[in-house]
Design a protein that fits this description.
This protein has four helices and five strands, in the order H-H-H-E-E-H-E-E-E. The chain is an alpha+beta fold. The C terminus is likely disordered.
Length: about 200
């Protein structure tokens, strides 16, 4: 009787161990399934959804992109034309004597008398070089206004970076004007500009 009871107890314990082992195997298999199969599939599904959303956004904006492309392409010839004109106004060297000649002819038309002309130093930039030029002259107020208005239309690209106007002591109708110009040219200097001092900017 005791032997039978012991055998039943042993079988019960073995059954429990088998159940526990089966449960452990099941849990382990489930964990492996989640780690190696379900989670990667979930991430792949999320990635596909994101790509689908991006593609949908692109498709929805295709008409706008096509219109913008047509608009920019239609403007390209005008931009290239204006760029070509601009590049013609930027020589390969300072050519400050040519610039002085242009200012002199403009001063004659506007009845300004140029008294002093002083080139400064060359400043090198990554894309171009600059030269600052100081100019002193005397003329009427109307002549000065006309001169400044027409400076932007001379063949050489320049910018007025400094301006000072004061009354002349000799005549109430004449004004003294000190102007600082900045002219632009190519970044690589040629032997023509060797007589102009240089400094790095």
């Amino acid at each position: 009787m005791m032997i039978r009871s012991f055998q039943q107890s042993t079988l019960t314990q073995s059954g429990r161990l088998l159940h526990a082992g089966g449960a452990m195997i099941t849990l382990t298999g489930l964990a492996l399934f989640v780690i190696f199969i379900y989670r990667p599939m979930q991430l792949e599904h999320q990635r596909i959804e994101e790509q689908t959303a991006d593609c949908t956004l692109i498709l929805n904006s295709a008409d706008r992109i096509r219109y913008e492309n047509i608009r920019l392409n239609s403007r390209l010839p005008d931009v290239e034309r204006r760029l070509g004109i601009m590049m013609q106004r930027i020589p390969n060297s300072p050519r400050e004597s040519d610039f002085l000649g242009q200012l002199t002819r403009l001063a004659e038309r506007t009845q300004l008398n140029i008294r002093d002309y002083r080139p400064g130093v060359i400043v090198r930039k990554d894309t171009h070089s600059e030269l600052e030029i100081k100019l002193s002259s005397v003329g009427s107020y109307a002549g000065i206004c006309q001169f400044l208005d027409e400076v932007a239309r001379i063949p050489r690209l320049c910018r007025v970076s400094g301006l000072e106007i004061r009354a002349s002591n000799t005549s109430g109708e004449a004004y003294l004007i000190d102007m600082t110009f900045r002219i632009y040219f190519a970044a690589v200097l040629t032997p023509e500009s060797s007589n102009v001092r240089q400094r790095n900017g």
